[in-house]
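Q: Protein A?
A:
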Amino acid sequence: MSFSQEVKDELEKQIGQARHCRIAELAVILLSYGRVETAQTGQKQLIVSSEHETIVRKYFTLLKKTFNIENGVLNPVISTENAGHMFEGVLEDEALMETVLKAVKMWNDEKQTMRKQSDVSDVLLKSACCKRAFLRGCFLCAGSMSDPQKGYHLEYLCNNEEMAGQLLKVIADFGVEAKTVRRKKYYVVYIKEGASIVELLNVMEAHISLMNLENTRILKEIGNHTNRKVNCETANLIKAVNAANKQIEGIERIRDVKGLDSLPAPLREMAEVRLQYPDATLGELGNYLSPPIGKSGVNHRLRKLGEIADKL
């Protein structure tokens, strides 16, 4: 199961305590997947149809918890469009249908049917708890998230610019920064920062997914820190080896051309110690001298030897 689906499964079980919160989430589901059809009996039906069973199950749960409706039917049907499974939730009672659509501010009183609109009524998003429920519904219906092992990316695929704008505003109300981009006929609201995704999961109250993501982030950070440390130490080691090789080559050039006896006593001693201990660090080389000197002194003498070798 993908991490994205794990988040959705958790959000499906997260039900708002207050009635107005459940209505806000229900509005998102109906806006995204709801429609009104007339059955062969002439009776109007409110249908939610999706290839994701999670959405239809959440739809029925919200109807039951909010309106005491239990006469809906969950029917897996075969789609003629993509040869895949679709799931439909059908509410067959016209009076109840009107009650539900009026509650979510989607009832067209003139035509006695569902009103077409591009986003959720702002009346339903007055309080912070309703905005949390709205974001849960949006992720269930249009959200996806990459595997945090591979990278951090959360997005909502919106059908129109109005919905994307509303989503951006609600996310911003919780102090989380999101961006939007046009992708073919869709408007994509996305977040790429791991810390911001964690905050949004907390807002949606997906706490288990949040902890799983945080664990992954910590392990990745430890791995990255270890890699950086190893790379740094390796680079320093290579740098030290290259410097030692260059010093030895210079001393050997002086020895072969002029002889080490031509050097002042402190430089001659330094040259002989470096040749004797080619793998020693500057601190170790200083201890081999008589009297011992510090790393800065060793570095000074080696630099003078290098200047003599360069002139040769």
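Q: Protein B?
A:
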Amino acid sequence: MSIKELGNFIRVGKDIIEVKDRKGLAAYMDTLIHEAVFAEDDRKKGLLLLVKEIAKACGAFPASIQGLYEEMGRDYPGFTVPAINIRGLTYDTARAIFRKALEKRVGAFIFEIARSEIGYTKQRPLEYATVVLAAAVREGFQGPVFIQGDHFQLVRKNYLAEAAPEVNYVKGLIQEAIEAEFYNIDVDTSTIVDIEKPTLAEQQRPNFERTAELAAHIRSLQPQGIDVSVGGEIGEIGGKNSTPDELKAYLDGFKQIFKSGKGLSKLSVQTGTSHGGVVLPDGTLAKVNIDFETLRLLSDIARREYGLSGAVQHGASTLPEEAFTMFPETATSEVHLATGFQNIMYDSVHLPAVFRDEVYSYLKTEFAKERKEGQTEEQFIYSIRKKGFGTMKKKWWGLETAAKESIMKEIEQKFDLLFSTLKVVDTMEIVSKTVKQVLVKKEVPAGLLSEL
């Protein structure tokens, strides 16, 4: 496919892209981003870089949330920032989020993807960031767009087998993400906490030492003028609840050894949730009891004693609606949301049954070995269907427009609720005041530009 038609909407000069026809460009973005995502190798990278530079020219730019989180550390503004993992239908879902953000004047929200999700959804950092920014252009969103690496994690079994290659892998992923303009990264080394040690400080030592090492690596790579927002974690999600003493042991240890610039902006803790929820034999989700008082206490200590934005709650998207009002009430700075949106897609009456059956058939064949003893069919499908987005990505993108639009209406309704209960409505102003615009120019291949 030639991109010559793009020349009707933009003008490429020396070191600059000028938008001639914003409305026409927005309409053309559907075609352009599809071509970019499904192109091959160097052409794919070139097209993704081009789309990203176009987004910046349109006023949607990758940014660090550090400034806002520093303000939260000084004076909690009463809202909890949603961090949203999109595993499938990424362009359509991001468009729905931006539409609702514009309607509600929401500026404080994050798009993120975890180390594991990058693999099974087949969305490398450059693709994920670019698709999100393309959606911003399509919907006319202008301002900072926060893109985050979630759970950039040391896998415990890999680390214990041979630490250096595992640490180097995560360092390489961090470099790839920052190059793709992820200016927010959550480092998760809570997996290597050593509970066999006699004191909390010694238990947390591997965690805070490796966090400090990876945070220093981030600081060495961040572009001039940008302080990447770095998060840490003390409690492996799905394990026992975190305590104030664990928080202090981790943050005190980190503070003593980290000397590479600004430290952590937030801290993920465990208060009773698990990623994806707990599935009962009939396929429904078990009720989750979050320890909100612990969350309140940990947020207060993190903010008052260490200047962080507060505590972060993971695994929350499958919670009942009434739970979300509690996050701002407990001064939680950020909440991570993923599986709930995936569930809307799979469970929607608008998803063609034939397609759903095709995905499930693929999963049953390809991932049969991952079925745990005693799992019902419903439990197995629920636990594995997150892996139905990667290999079948092109088919998800190719769903009929009417089906996707109907599913996205359900997604929008969910974000209407989330933005309201998390109290991020009308946060564009505080984001504008606290987050500075720093544009990092990326070189688009000259051969690609010549096609215009």
